[in-house]
Amino acid sequence: MMQMKNHLKLFPLLVAGLLAGCSVDEEADGIDASQDEIRLTVSNDWQYGNITRAATVYDHANFPSSFWVKAFVKGTWTEYIDALVINETSNGWVFDGFQKYYWPMAEELNFFAYMPANTDNSVVPSSAVSCTQADGPKFTVTLPATSGGQDGKDEWIYAYEQGKSKAANASGVDLNFKHPLSTFVFRLSKLHEGMTIKNITVKNVKTSGTFTHSASSQWSNQGNATDFVATVNSKFELPASEFPKEIGGPYFGIPQTFAGGKQTVIVSYDDNGFDDTMEAEVDVPEWKSGTRYLYDLTINTYLKVNVVTININPWKKYEW
Asked: The domain 183-311 is classified under which CATH number: 3.40.50.1010, 2.40.128.30, 2.30.33.40, 2.60.40.2630?
């Protein structure tokens, strides 16, 4: 897979003030605006594999067609750019209504953005998200504990750039989108020919929590542990050359630590008419934000699971 390195320029740009259409000579809540337009860029130096039937994750070909942005005056927390959507068009990225904003003469701004702009199908709905001067971006979420509950869902990523001034950002404010959740994938490396994998269960996973950007420990209030169950129900009669094969995911997980640094993985299967389960204990101390965990399954007379950790925050090209 080829790594893509480019930057998406956002055109046209924003106008200072809270009211759409205010001129450069107007003031927003007593703040003098300059004649320097605010420019934003989005770093697009990441790729992330898209596996059919599972949750939606982003690469360049699968990039959201819009995102949402807001800006506050640092210190007073006055809204300076009020909840605008930026859309992708054939002419580049443009703001709804082709609005423009200009830098304040002296004040610094904090920018908060997230994608996708429409969170109706996202694992983190906009109604759960806030942004305050004390906490920065914050949300509480409960993730589905089944593959069926997560399939087709969009991920949620955000950018938070603080203390940006006209003098230091003449060439543009780079929005560095971060990924607060973990993701995990199941891959099959070897099994008996004709075996049907029915379910894969990861025991004792916490599926809810609160994310606070500015906290020393960003994730808190994780709920009670439950079992995550991925339904596969697929029979595998592939030639050896077609293994390894991804069979489930990516799925979203709450960053957390695991008791004793261990997880238990159970595979339920039908081996040519014989139903059974296999269980393996796996060394997984924790799930981290912006990290993908690849659960590589080998099934012979016993189950072996090897977990590969892939750092994807910020999103970079990964190798399976």
From this structure: 2.60.40.2630
